[in-house]
Amino acid sequence: MPTLSTRLDQGRPYALGLFRMVVGLLFLCHGAASLFGVLGGAVGGGTVPTGAWPGWYAAVIQLVGGALVLLGLGTRGAAFIASGSMAYAYFSAHQSQALFPLQNGGEPSVLFCWAFLLLVFTGPGAFALDGLLASRAPRRQTVTA
Q1: Which of 14, 41, 61, 137 is least crowded, fewest Cβ atoms below 10 Å from its Cβ?
Q2: Average pLDDT over residues 41-68
Q3: Contact 49, 56 (CB under 8 A)
C-alpha cells in the first residue's frame, strides 16, 4: 500500500506545472498593467512612460518573462531573468525604506523573486511547451565508426 508521501510525489510534476502557470500569469498581468494600463494600470494608474528606467524595462521583463514562464517555454532562462529583476526591484526600490518586506511594501517582489528562483532549479514541471516541443523534435542518430 503506497504511503501518502509516495502518492504526493507522483503528483509533483503536475503541482509544479500549475504553480509555474499561476506565477507566470500573475507576473504577466503586472507587465500588462504597467505597459497597457489594463487591470488598474501601473502603480498610481495609467502606464509607464516608454523607455523610462527602470519601470518600463521591468514591465517588459514582466510581460515577456511571465508569458514564457506561463507557457513553459524557456522556463529556466526566463525565470532566472525574472528572479533577478525582482531582486533588483526589491533592493533598489524597497530595501531603503525599511528592513523587512512587510514594512517596506516589497512582499510581491520578494515572493516573485523566490518563486522564479525555485523554477530555475526545479524546471517547468508538467504542461510545459518545452516538453511538448522536445518530444516532437526529430532525434538525431549518431553514427559511430
Answers
A1: 137
A2: 92
A3: yes
The amino acid at residue 111 is L
C-alpha cell at 3: 504511503
Against a cut of 0.85, is the pTM above it?
yes
The rounded Cα 120 to chain-centroid distance in angstroms is 9
Q: What percent of the chain has pLDDT over 90?
A: 80
- Chain Cα centroid distance, residue 87: 13
Tell me if the bond preceding 54 is cis, omega within 30° of 0.
Answer: yes
HEC letters along the chain: CCCHHHHHHHCHHHHHHHHHHHHHHHHHHHHHHHHHCCCCCCCCCCCCCCCCCCHHHHHHHHHHHHHHHHHCCCHHHHHHHHHHHHHHHHHHHHCCCCCCHHHHCCHHHHHHHHHHHHHHHHCCCCCCHHHHHHHHCCCCCCCCC
pLDDT single digits (tens) 100-125: 999 999 999 999 999 999 999 999 99
How many whole angstroms separate alpha carbon 113 and alpha carbon 87? 6
- Alpha-carbon distances of 64 from 6, 13, 17, 104, rounded to whole Å: 36, 24, 18, 27
